[in-house]
Amino acid sequence: MSHKRVFSYTGLCYIEVKNLNKKDIVNGIDGEQWIMVRRQKSNTPVKLPLLDEAKAILDKYSDHPSIENNYSLLRVFSDQKVNEYLKEIAKLCHIEKNLTFHVARHTFATTIALLNDVPIETVSKMLGHTN
Questions:
Q1: DSSP label at residue 80
Q2: What global pTM score does this model have?
Q3: φ, ψ for residue 100 (rounded to 5)?
């Protein structure tokens, strides 16, 4: 289930991970790879650095994209199934929190971004918030 961690390293919501395509990974002016997508909900453009952890997960599934799955980079179960698995993992690990795909976006915001001194305004933009 390691590919499900990609959302914790990107802040992408479920549908954006499900639809993530090779064309969404671009080289930035800094020479690094970035994820460039439009938020499904607001159509807001978002640019996110492709962290090494997320890159490793995408590399692991590099043979997945095909015409049958619309060239999606990851095999993603339904949102309900992913949340069901997360709840099962939480139970097995004795985690009291109600883990969901959406909680992973907050994990990205707090653990990955804010704890690494990324300004709150930048985090807000990375998550696709419009205000």
A1: H
A2: 0.74
A3: -145, 170
